[in-house]
Task: inverse folding
């Protein structure tokens, strides 16, 4: 079989319509970035909250947090996508269920974002817990001893240091969120992977298509990595050696 | 009324009894040294005083307020009680000056300016005014511990607790920290000090408490303690420690 290369395909028009294939990919990239960033915000907020709760002296909160992490860590992401899309709406109260199924705007996008956000939050919660627990026990005591409340001790003493310590794993997580967002195509989000499949079928230039998509994902993950590296550099503590514990 | 009143305090970790019927008191302006073998419960006892460790029996009053009592506002009580740790426990991500202002601002509600003024004065006092823009990790152990004392003093405490403040220090840095503590004592600060620095105890302490296996086995004036300690345990401990 002889493959017919055509790198100009991106600037050609699609079969039925006057868009170019490039515009498909760009719009796919846009949705990929939107799903990823929105999920990342959810993941950070929930992940820090749940990870923090898991280090408090409240046993029932710790158990609840642990259960949350286990639940989301032990089910494949693709299956979670389908669960949120097909199963969860059935178990909502009747009116809400109808609304979600028929009227919720950008239904696929919202579902994918919630799913990826919660999935990632469980992973971040685990890193946050480990980060807080790696701090010397005396740090918490020093905060409390000066009269800070427990929430204040977390806010001003424990979390700022824990955050710095877990920047490396958080960096991988931020990169993962872009890569994992490709799973959203399975429930019909018009993101990059979805558009790539569509372009492949429409243009029959699968190799160019997937090579282009590979480059675009790579660039996303790479930018994510550089952003985190910048934050890491900005928040570095002079004279502090993390390995000294 | 004593500044710190410890009455019949017992504490267990599971079935292991760390503190057994401990009773003592510290008067206003008094300096009390606590010594005893490792694992005898010294740290646990002083952590009970500001409620960092809960205890199951007895009561502790600080300036008349019950530490273990249900209605007590522990953060407020703790803001009145300065604490200095063996490993300093400065906040590594904050500049030295911020270590001294964070409590004043967040706990006492002082303005930034007022907190900074106080912090500057205290850093000057512990001899570290040139270090205010450094991070703790850039300071020596002795300097860090002096900052930690300054951090505690910034809250205008009514008494101070020290848990082996010099045991993590290189020998040449012990003196600078003890000197700051000695000045404090001379100015009339009420202090409970866990330490094995017997020179400090002799010169500065009014009373010495000796603990063993969770009990206070000796509670005597400094002269009596170094003159005629009554228990064999204390005598043995003293002879070991003074030989160094
Ligand atoms: N969190 C804890 N759980 C169980 N045992 C503890 C805990 N903290 C301290 N202990 C035990 O309590 C005893 C007293 O400890 P501590 O007060 O630190 O002694 P000291 O300060 O006199 O060396 C020790 O035997 C120690 O092992
Ligand atoms: Mg100790």
Result:
């Amino acid at each position: 079989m002889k493959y017919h290369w055509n790198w100009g395909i991106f600037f050609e028009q699609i079969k039925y319509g006057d868009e170019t294939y490039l515009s498909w990919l760009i719009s796919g990239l846009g949705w990929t970035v939107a799903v990823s960033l929105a999920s990342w915000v959810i993941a950070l907020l929930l992940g820090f909250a749940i990870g923090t709760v898991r280090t408090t002296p409240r046993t029932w909160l710790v158990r609840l947090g642990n259960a949350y992490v286990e639940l989301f860590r032990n089910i494949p992401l693709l299956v979670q996508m389908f669960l949120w899309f097909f199963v969860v709406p059935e178990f909502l109260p009747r009116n809400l269920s109808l609304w979600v199924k028929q009227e919720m705007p950008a239904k696929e996008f919202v579902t994918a974002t919630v799913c990826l956000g919660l999935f990632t939050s469980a992973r971040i919660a685990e890193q946050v817990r480990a980060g807080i627990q790696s701090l010397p026990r005396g740090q918490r005591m020093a905060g409390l001893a000066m009269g800070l409340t427990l929430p204040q001790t977390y806010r001003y003493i424990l979390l700022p240091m824990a955050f710095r310590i877990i920047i490396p794993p958080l960096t991988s997580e931020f990169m993962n969120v872009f890569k994992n967002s490709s799973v959203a195509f399975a429930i019909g989000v018009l993101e990059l992977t979805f558009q790539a499949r569509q372009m492949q079928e429409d243009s029959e230039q699968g190799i160019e298509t997937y090579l282009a998509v590979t480059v675009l994902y790579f660039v996303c993950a790479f930018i994510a990595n550089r952003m985190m590296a910048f934050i890491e550099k900005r928040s570095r503590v002079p004279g502090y050696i993390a390995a000294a514990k | 009324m004593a500044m710190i009143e410890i009455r019949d305090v017992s504490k267990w970790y599971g079935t292991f009894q760390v503190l057994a019927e401990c009773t003592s008191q510290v008067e206003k302006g008094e300096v009390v040294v606590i010594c005893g073998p490792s694992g005898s419960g010294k740290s646990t006892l002083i952590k009970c005083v500001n409620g960092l460790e809960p205890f199951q029996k007895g009561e502790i009053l600080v300036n008349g307020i019950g530490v273990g009592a249900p209605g007590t506002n522990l953060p407020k009580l703790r803001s009145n009680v300065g604490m200095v740790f063996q490993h300093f426990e400065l906040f590594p991500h904050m500049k030295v000056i911020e270590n001294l202002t964070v409590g004043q601002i967040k706990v006492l509600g002082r303005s930034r300016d007022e907190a900074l003024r106080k912090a500057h004065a205290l850093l000057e006092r512990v001899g570290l005014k040139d270090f205010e823009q450094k991070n703790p990790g850039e300071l020596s152990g002795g300097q860090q511990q002096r900052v930690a004392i300054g951090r505690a003093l910034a809250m205008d405490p009514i008494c101070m607790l020290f848990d082996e403040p010099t045991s993590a220090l290189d020998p040449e840095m012990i003196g600078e920290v003890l000197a700051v503590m000695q000045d404090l004592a001379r100015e009339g600060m009420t202090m409970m000090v866990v330490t094995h620095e017997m020179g400090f105890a002799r010169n500065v302490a009014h009373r010495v408490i000796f603990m063993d296996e969770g009990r206070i086995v000796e509670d005597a004036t400094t002269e009596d303690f170094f003159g005629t300690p009554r228990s064999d345990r204390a005598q043995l401990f003293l002879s070991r420690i003074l030989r160094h």
User: Anything to note?
Assistant: Residues 21-53 of chain A form the longest helix (33 residues).
